[in-house]
Amino acid sequence: MVRDIFRAIAELRSTGVAILLVEQNARAALQVSDRGYVLETGRITMQGPSATLAADPRIVELYLGHGTE
Q: Parallel, antiparallel, or unpaired for β 43-49 and 35-40?
């Protein structure tokens, strides 16, 4: 089910539809987004292009881990 939802989000994105996605699955969210925002206790602590965030060692350590989905 989750894969189907993210597939639908990616399809909508490819048509130019803007989407605001609030998601705990950081790895999947960064894969289908252009930009990301990291919230900690209600405050934005990091932001930037999704690819940059996904490669940031702090983001990997805190939110993505070393495994793959």
A: antiparallel
In 3D, which of 20, 44, 23 has the Cα closest to residue 34?
20
53/30 Cα distance (integer angstroms): 8
Q: Which two tokens stand for residue 37?
A: 């925002």
The predicted-structure confidence for 33-67, as pLDDT tens digits, reads as follows 999 999 999 999 999 999 999 999 999 998 887 65
Task: Name every residue whose Cβ is closer than 8 Å to that of residue 47 and which is 6 or more positions away in sequence.
Answer: 35, 36, 37, 38, 53
Among the listed residues 57, 55, 66, the one whose alpha carbon sits nearest the alpha carbon of residue 31? 55
Q: Is residue 24 a contact partner of residue 63, using CB atoms and an 8 Å limit?
A: no
